[in-house]
Amino acid sequence: MADQLWLPGLEAPPVPTDGLFFAVLPDANTAGHIAKLAQQICGETRSKSKPHAANRLHVTLQHLGNFAGGLPQGLVDVATKAAASIRMKPFSVEFDHVLSFAAKPRPGPMVLGGGEGVVGLHTLREALARALQNAGFGDCPVAPNTEHYTPHVTLAYGMPWIAARPVDAASWNVRELVLMHSLLGRTRHVALARWPLAA
């Protein structure tokens, strides 16, 4: 195999090691229910993909970026300031169908989706978008609309495409907003801070 061409001054960009995002998490009982559903679906499709463990299940509200060599403290500070300013009552969510985010026929993520049961997540995301902008996060790729946002819980990656179908609903009360640190490539998420929802 020929050596890769190297040109002075054109070093490869550093590999991201850390991600930062806002999320909501299911309670322990609901997470266990969703994890069992993920195992069942992986078994039905005879996929070699591993279902996500219960402690990794979440709904991403806003991804703030991936970074090499750790999280930028300034960004964490702005995110923390924004989240602390949000005032919203707790609300319930319900995910009632499974669907593929794959581009048929390629494998891709298998997720839980919801209809009217996820309206509260759109509202919380809008509030978060405004709070980030007010906190000075000018480069945040967030707009106070939810046109391209699809709330979901990822069950497994690398799954074969399937048509959307109903499942036993997974529902819980969203009582807090969480800032998560993703250790990329290490299948770990660490909660950096939590804010209870309150009017």
Query: Which regions are unreliable across 5 or more consecutive residues at pLDDT < 50?
Result: 142-146
Supply the helix-strand structural class.
alpha+beta
State the CATH class: Alpha Beta
Under the CATH scheme, the architecture is: Alpha-Beta Complex
Topology as H/E string? EHEHEEHEEEE
Protein name: 2'-5' RNA ligase
GO molecular function: 2',3'-cyclic-nucleotide 3'-phosphodiesterase activity; ligase activity; RNA 2',3'-cyclic 3'-phosphodiesterase activity
Organism: Paraburkholderia phenazinium
Keywords: Hydrolase, Ligase
Provide a compact summary of the structure.
The protein has three helices and eight strands; from the N terminus they run E-H-E-H-E-E-H-E-E-E-E.
List keywords for this structure.
four-stranded antiparallel sheet; Cyclic Phosphodiesterase, Chain: A; 199 residues; 3 helices
Molecular structure report:
- By secondary structure, the protein is α+β, with helices and mostly antiparallel strands.
- It has a single domain, classed as Cyclic Phosphodiesterase, Chain: A (Alpha-Beta Complex).
- It is built from 3 helices and 8 strands, in the order E-H-E-H-E-E-H-E-E-E-E.
- Strands 2-1-7-8 form a 4-stranded antiparallel sheet, with helices on one face. The protein has a 4-stranded antiparallel sheet with strand order 5-4-3-6.
- A hairpin with a 4-residue loop joins strand 7 and strand 8.
- The longest helix is centred in the N-terminal third of the chain and has 18 residues, at 28-45.
- The radius of gyration is 18 Å and the shape is globular.
- The N and C termini lie far apart (63 Å).
- Residues 142-146 have low confidence and may be disordered.
- One of its GO terms (molecular function) is ligase activity.
- InterPro entries: Cyclic_Pdiesterase (IPR009097), RNA_CPDase (IPR004175).
